[in-house]
Amino acid sequence: MSSDFDEEEKNEELEEAEEQPEEEMEAEVGGKGSLSGEGGVYSLLFPKGKDVRYVFSAMATMLKDAAFSLGPDGVKLRAMDSSKVSIIMLDIPSSSLDEVNIGEEIKVGISFDVLRKIMRRISSRDKVEFIVDKPQGKLHVVIYTKKGKEGGMYRKFSLSLIDVSMEDVPEPNLEYPIRITADLDSMLDIIAAANDISDIVSFAAAANQFIIRAEGEGGKAIESIYQSTDELFHEYVVNTEGSASYSAKQILGFMSQMRQICDAVTMEFATDKPLKLTFNFSTGSLLLYLLQRT
């Protein structure tokens, strides 16, 4: 995964030169030390810049904006996209963070259109600090070198907090008879091939066989058949056979980001139920629920 990360990083550095994101955010480069403060100022320090970059980039493929919960327990997000076809759930516990300077839970509304541009500037060895300045209505994203706060340079990007609907988005209370954990790269390859043919990809699972297929115009089609004993499966549980279809593009966008920090993905589905994708990375977990397509 590291070689892919380095190559993607080089390509996106060229894109950044054209995007000019500073029109929407303030940028600053400084010397040593922490930028955390007091009096309505709260901060969290993430140990792995790579996790921050790709988790938030994955969410940006589905969300235009969202409200996060930051507190002593860590970072949580429960959000539904604007078209109401997906629910995204993020959990990064405080035990996975280097520092947590928040004594109470606070809500922070951000624009992913702006944040995703900042994420592209994070390198794999960087540490990242989120500083919420409530009096100024700002979120400061501070990127430190691998030496962290104690030494080296930092880059700080500031964006305005926004008002986001705070409607409660509970986790769907669903039981799935099908649960398959598979190698993420293998799944990404077939979903990418399916997306080239159609915007809809179909999953079908039986006790001993898993099928992914897509059908397009002009008789184009692709079908991949896997046996439950194949090495790419880390877990294969099918209590009841089922099949369903979902957006190939949306799955592909999410998986292509998360593959940089995850080796496996857990897929749960059933006939007439949303798809549930679970990505466990080194500092937390990210879930995507996606409605069926017909």
What does this structure look like?
The protein is of the alpha+beta class. It has 2 domains: 159 residues, DNA Polymerase III, Chain A, domain 2 (Roll); 113 residues, Roll (DNA Polymerase III, Chain A, domain 2), CATH 3.10.150. The strands form 3 sheets. A 9-stranded antiparallel β-sheet has the order 7-3-4-5-19-18-17-11-15. A 6-stranded antiparallel β-sheet has the order 1-10-9-8-2-6, covered by helices on one side. Strands 14-13-12-16 form a 4-stranded antiparallel β-sheet. A hairpin with a 5-residue loop joins strand 13 and strand 14. Helix 2 packs antiparallel against helix 3, helix 2 packs antiparallel against helix 5 and helix 4 runs antiparallel to helix 5. The longest helix has 18 residues. The chain starts with a helix and ends with a strand.
- Widest sheet: strand ordering: 7-3-4-5-19-18-17-11-15
Termini separation: 34 Å
Low-confidence stretches: 2-7, 9-24, 30-37
**Structural class by secondary-structure content:** alpha+beta
